[in-house]
Amino acid sequence: MAEHIVKIIEAQYINPTVKRFVVQKPAGYTFNPGQATDVSINLPEWKDRKRKFTFTSLNKWEHLEFVIRIHKQHDGVTEMLGKLNAGTELIINEPYGVIDYKGPGVFIAGGTGITPFIAIFRELHKNKQIGSNKLIVSERTSYDLILDSELQTMLGNNYIKTFTRENVIGFIDKHINEDFLFKNISDFGQRFYVCGPESFVTNICKMLIDLGAKPDSLVIDK
Fold first, then answer.
1. Angstrom distance (rounded) from CA 134 to CA 155
2. pTM of this prediction?
3. Which residues of 81-93 are buried (b: 16+ CB within 10 A; e: fewer)?
4. Tell me, what DSSP letter sits at residue 42?
5. How far apart are CA 56 and CA 64, in angstroms?
6. Digit-coded pLDDT (tens) for 171-186
7. Backbone conformation region of residue 138, classed left if phi is above 0, alpha if psi is from -120 to 50, else beta
């Protein structure tokens, strides 16, 4: 698999836990909304430590964009990414992944599972094709939301947020369960896109099927 060395053009935190990276785009490099690539840091002790990150940019943009949650207590790749600034080199590989847009439906994301959906919604919005698509996001707190205002602008009332650790007066922590899905989805015969931690995807898919969704209507990253 081909590797490309690219420089970081911009690096900035967009909320307390998430950092946006704008990086050089190799000549002739193409990808589809929803795809990802393996990324490593071009430093001797880090170059072989690859991690999968999804493009949040669109293919026609002149640069690549990644939006990455930084885990500062893990002593790992994302913690190191949190320390990097413009000018540092990354190594990216060829695009891969199977979350591609197959038609209108409900998108359900857990945490950074939102990232493949960002490029899909940006492409749909650019082409005026958002239509009836709905997004349900489960995050720890409102401070952890990724590109919240942009998603709100694109989706309006079809953008639903639920938080598991909000910890504010009057707020009841809420995990997505069958009751939540039943109240927020009117048609289980439509297409569903699910992305997030493996256990999240497994549990959500099981609940959707139990509520009437067909297994072949589920689009997940395999």
1. 7
2. 0.92
3. bbebeeebbbbbb
4. S
5. 8
6. 445 789 999 999 999 9
7. beta
